[in-house]
Amino acid sequence: MKPLLRICLIILLSKGVMAQAPSGYNYDESKVPSFQLRSPLVTKDGREVTDRAAWNSQRQTLLKEFEATVYGAVPEQADIQLSGVEVEESLVWNGKAVRDLTELTYTYKDRELRLNLLSYRPVGEGPFPVFLGMNFSGNQTTTTDPAVPLSRNWVMKNPEIGMPTNVATEASRGGRSMRWPLELMVERGYAVCTLCYGDVDPDFDDGFENGLHGLVRSKEFGSIAAWAWGLREVRGYLQQLPWTDRVAVFGHSRLGKAALWAGASDPEFSLVISNNSGCGGAALSKRQVGETLKAINDRFPHWFVEAFHTYNERELELPLDQHLLMACVAPRLLYVTSASEDLWADPKGEQLATEFARPAFELLGGRVGYHMRPGRHNMLEFDWKRILDFADAHWR
Ligand code: GCU
Fold first, then answer.
1. Active site residue 394
2. Which domains does the chain have, with CATH numbers?
């Protein structure tokens, strides 16, 4: 190989490795500290959980702990009203699917928040189980369908798909469609619904002023809790429609963290799917492999509550870990994915956390699915095919 070519290749390769595994963090299994994890089936005062009644109370306690220590909670007294629903329904894909473009308006006092949903479902009465998940850069990135309006709210910028700023562009249409095998899902008898996470809470540190924080004027919850609120609200809306009877929640990466928190805390989600959600999602924090608490809290100070920041560089003192969150999905269905090269998200830590959550499902029912895809941080058709197989076998 010519020297210049070789240098280019080395630069490209190291760039790839960097993106998967920023330097200065631990990726070496032999350097993982020893740590203890609480069993989901033992209460804080040491009693064993052996039946459904005891589990219900244990689950409530765990959720309160996650609220206080990690995510925060949208104040219960915030009486947010769904004040408007507009739906435009069309037959699409040569008559093979129905597309709904829906705008939900939420009102609190004199303020409003609008969520724009895009859904596709098979033709017919149903009921069709629906997969609900957020997207990063607008509904228009999930499909080349020209009728899907560009997001009007803050979106994650992504020059790779023709969106250099936080404003949606026509060039980004379909730019993320490889993560959204919509036709496959509909062909297999499922509906799918998405909205942009920026509709609920723009993803930057603005001192909790905009999005849901601005609506309820509260700083008691982080953005992950805000996105989870959006998922729960949309779940409530979907569930009263005539064409569906069950809703799964899913998300990739930071949206996988939000899906896990939404799914763990809202028992109406019958299937909860976390894809490559890593630190603050499916990975065990105490391992400190890849992204650490300090790394996540420094870069994304608005994702979690202040209490979580106090554990920066003190992971071993955390009173809980993420396997307990996943246990809160029991006795429902949980599916977790990792990617082998997604070292920043600690794939092994995600797998272990899933295993440590398992006893709750063994006692209470429900089921846990897991796969490790060879490759990088992403959510691809490979992942979806396995998720759909799990759904076919256990959810329908
Ligand atoms: C960053 C962040 C992760 C997060 C990811 C994403 O890499 O450190 O915690 O999961 O972004 O959401 O894409």
1. no
2. 77-394 (3.40.50.1820)
